Amino acid sequence: MAQRDIKPRVRVPKKIKKGDVFEVKTLVSHRMETGLRKDKTTGESIPRDIIRTLTVGYGGREVLKAVWHPAMSANPYTSFYVKAEASGPMSFTWIDDLGEQYRKVIEINVVG
Question: Which of 18, 82, 99, 112 is the most buried (most CB within 10 A)?
Answer without folding.
Answer: 82
